[in-house]
Design goal:
The chain has about 260 residues and is an alpha/beta fold. It has one domain: Rossmann fold. It has ten helices and ten strands. α5 crosses α6. Bound molecules: adenosine-5'-triphosphate (ATP) and magnesium ion. Magnesium ion binds next to α1. Keywords: ATP-binding, Cell inner membrane, Cell membrane, Membrane, Nucleotide-binding, Translocase, Transport.
Amino acid sequence: MLKITDLVKRYGTGNPVLKSLDLTIEGESVVSVIGSSGAGKSTLLRCINRLVEPTSGSIELNGTELTSLRGRELRAARRKIGMVFQGFNLVDRLTVMENVQSGRLGYIPTWAAVMRRYPKKDIRRAYELMERVGIAHYANKRADELSGGERQRVGVVRALMQDPEILLADEPTASLDPKTSEQIMGLLRDLAGELKLPVLINIHNVTEAKIYTDRIVGMRYGRIIFDDTPDKLDQEAMDQIYSGSPHADRSEDLKEAS
Ligand SMILES: Nc1ncnc2c1ncn2[C@@H]1O[C@H](COP(=O)(O)OP(=O)(O)OP(=O)(O)O)[C@@H](O)[C@H]1O
Ligand SMILES: [Mg+2]
């Protein structure tokens, strides 16, 4: 279970980008986060895997408080959080297998990784997962020889090789054509069920969010203003999530403060 309580993130001395945010994700649900550009979706994901430091608040993953972890403990916790990126973040000149095995970094000794001496069970697991997502025949191809959809499948397998307890995806389909985008969303949904994994996806495509996710979280200027099943996301909710200006929101903040 991921349990976020009263999370605040402020970059430097600016206004908070996340404002006392609460979010709990249980079980193997697939949750999408929607909202205008700048709403704080990426910041939320980055706070969870500590790519950015939360200003205050609590983020618990299966009972472990993530916000206070340092050093070795932080690295161990990060392994439990699989991350899928819009730009795939593959190493182009490495093969698919090498990219996928980099998900095991932190589990195997550095020398073994450098020598590409992967444990047999990791190779087996990689083939299982690559088979599952349809890229096993590309194992020895260089990553830069693949199409976008294939590259994102590599990204997904690499994240799953970490044996994560949660999967976070920041606009995983934004660089893909519509059909491939749907395939990747379907894949993420199916894998969540098969691996009993909660998945949190930032996405701009609301139609896909409705089709492929169980729950939609709508963010506006650092707050969650909608959190419900896709069928509840009507026009009024959409207008609230996507309307307004940062200026309007500041006046709301001032009202709250006074
Ligand atoms: N490293 C940073 N330093 C300062 N401000 C930042 C930083 N990263 C993000 N911000 C600001 O925080 C706010 C939220 O940004 P964030 O990237 O989380 O939004 P987003 O919802 O993911 O937007 P998009 O849909 O465009 O990806 C924006 O106003 C942005 O300018
Ligand atoms: Mg973003």
